[in-house]
Amino acid sequence: MTMGHTTRNPIRPDPGLESPASVPPRRGPIRRVLRWMGFFCVLAAALVFVGFLRFADSVTTLKPPAEPRADAIIVLTGGYQRIDQAVELLQKGAGRRLLISGAHPSTTPKQIRKMTQGSADLFSCCVDIGYDALDTIGNAEEASNWIHARGYRSILVVTNNYHMPRSLAELAYVDPDIQFIPYPVVNSDLKASDWFADPNALRVMLAEYAKLLLAGARNIVGLRHTGLRSASLGDQS
């Protein structure tokens, strides 16, 4: 008996099933969250870096007005060079009165006058010394009290150039209706185009930029502490 050739039908896969190799792997929710977190971290780092470059450019190119003039002058302590410049502005008539904000309680008006070589008459008539401010927030609060007590509307603000953006931000927060005119005291370390190669100058700039970001975030959410010595002592009693 002749055996017929039997043709075997190949096993065909169910058309509803696909090869595992053709199915893209599914990303779990944790992986998606981590991917988005990484993206936002990179974006935030880029924004912070660009912000620092803008901050550094504004600080290093900041110049005092050619003909400074305001109702009064405020200098934020932190260096004798600032006070010298503020007293000189007062002598030239750039403002009617000067507030030296944030002086140490042990510092006397006589010591400051001798240090600046200002006249006794000038200090007795037109210079006020504030001892309450503990930090830049305190400077702004102390300045605000002084401004409103005397009815001033425009103020020359004297401080270092790298400290100016944060100082203006704090002053504008407590007194948005007052005109604050920056008069930067230029730090010689930042004049050179290669200041970023100087570890000390770079450290100062990075620290001040971080403080500026913190101040901006704090002012947005309204989480502020008092920067006045008298208020701090009152809280402890």
What CATH architecture would you give? 3-Layer(aba) Sandwich
Helix content: 40-55%
The level 1 CATH classification is Alpha Beta
In terms of structural class, how would the helical and strand content be classed? alpha/beta
CATH topology: Rossmann fold
Domain module count:
1
Backbone shape: elongated
What does the main sheet amount to?
Answer: 5 strands, parallel
Low-confidence stretches: 233-237
End-to-end CA span = 118 Å
How large is the radius of gyration? 31 Å
| Share of residues in strands | 5-15%
- Widest beta sheet: strand line-up: 3-2-1-4-5
Compute the average pLDDT: 84
Beta strand count: 5
Instruction: Write the CATH homologous superfamily.
Output: HUPs
Total of DSSP H or I helical runs spanning 4+ residues? 8
Order of helices and strands: HEHEHHEHEHEHH
Notes on the protein architecture:
The protein has 237 residues and is an alpha/beta fold. The protein has a single domain (61-236), classed as Rossmann fold (3-Layer(aba) Sandwich), CATH 3.40.50.620. Helices cover 49% and strands 11% of the residues. It contains 8 helices and 5 strands, in the order H-E-H-E-H-H-E-H-E-H-E-H-H. The protein has helices at residues 29-61, 80-91, 109-116, 120-126, 136-150, 164-174, 199-221, 229-236; strands at 72-76, 98-101, 127-130, 154-160, 179-185. A 5-stranded parallel beta sheet has the order 3-2-1-4-5, sandwiched between helices. Helix 2 (80-91) links the parallel strand 1 and strand 2. The longest helix is centred in the first third of the chain and has 33 residues, at 29-61. The N and C termini lie far apart (118 Å). The model is unreliable at 233-237 (pLDDT under 50).
